[in-house]
Write a structure and sequence with these properties.
- The protein is of the alpha+beta class.
- About 30% of the residues lie in helices and about 35% in strands.
- The strands form two sheets. Strands 1-2-6-7-8-5 form a six-stranded antiparallel beta sheet.
- It is globular, with a radius of gyration of 15 Å.
- The two termini are about 25 Å apart.
């Protein structure tokens, strides 16, 4: 994935902002706990997370394949996280706590997922980037990869930001 065109990718977030956004994403959004989503990289231009395969995520028992709904929900969550990072980067003049308060109205308004290959593996990596961050709507692109780096699913979404 290429860096987002609307957010300078070289912006470095403060540890307080990273910790706060991680807490929102991994703890306060309880469904992300159910999925097992864990952030592995949080940058202004791209966010990355991981899901470890577990029995509760199986969608096809004969193949131990991850459920398509897990892929969809995970990519939707990642698109939202990318928008949160982009909003945080846009408002670096504010304190980390002020920026963390900006996410209250964030919501998905459109989501498209393309399933390219079966999701079979011990773990998966999810990536997302913001293609455009407007004053009211943000557009994102997401990827769902196997442990071997093979692209399994892609997504695109729009989020309301105001």
């Amino acid at each position: 994935m290429t860096p987002a065109t609307t957010v300078p990718p070289e912006i470095e977030f403060e540890p307080e902002f990273v910790a706060g956004l991680t807490k929102v994403f991994e703890d306060l959004i309880v469904f992300n706990q159910v999925l097992g989503l864990k952030i592995i990289s949080l940058k202004a231009g791209q966010v990355r997370a991981r899901i470890n395969m577990k029995h509760e995520l199986v969608g096809h028992y004969a193949y131990n394949r991850i459920h398509g709904g897990v892929i969809s929900a995970g990519l939707d969550a990642m698109g939202g996280l990318a928008v949160m990072a982009a909003i945080g980067a846009r408002h670096m003049h504010e304190t980390p706590q002020q920026r963390l308060q900006r996410f209250a109205k964030l919501g998905t308004i459109d989501l498209r997922i393309d399933y390219l290959r079966p999701g079979i593996g011990e773990w998966f990596e999810l990536r997302a980037e913001v293609m455009r961050l407007g004053s009211r709507v943000a557009s994102t692109r997401m990827e769902f990869l196997g442990a071997d780096g093979k692209l399994l699913s892609t997504g695109s979404a729009a989020y309301i930001v105001s």
